[in-house]
Amino acid sequence: TVKITAVGFTPSSLSIARGDSVTFVNESGNVIELESGPHPIHTSLPGFSSGSLEGGQRYRFTFDQASSVSLHNHRQPSQQFSIEVR
Fold first, then answer.
1. DSSP β-bridge partners for residue 25
2. What is the pLDDT of residues 39-78, one digit of tens each?
């Protein structure tokens, strides 16, 4: 589980196995939108897009292919998260 707070992602990075799922939880108090990099075109991980998440809402994604990807909060692109899928 990855938490998104007002200051960013906790933890700020993960290393997982291919086929693992990660749940992202909005604890920021604001609406967020999770997207893959690069901002604003979001092309590094097709299919990864949470849409708008209100406070307390969750987004679960299964990472099916090995890669290193950066993710971010589209509404605050300085909030970055990186994931390595082995």
1. 3, 58
2. 999 999 999 999 999 999 999 999 999 999 999 999 999 9
How far, in Å, CA of 18 to CA of 71, rounded?
17
Q: Is this model's pTM higher than 0.85 or not?
A: yes
Structure tokens at 75: 């509404």
* Residue 37 φ/ψ, nearest 5 degrees: -80, 175
Rounded distance between C-alpha atoms, residue 19 and residue 66, angstroms: 9
Residue type, 45: L
Nearest to 22 by CA among 4, 5, 2: 2
Phi, psi for 17 (deg, rounded to 5): -90, 150
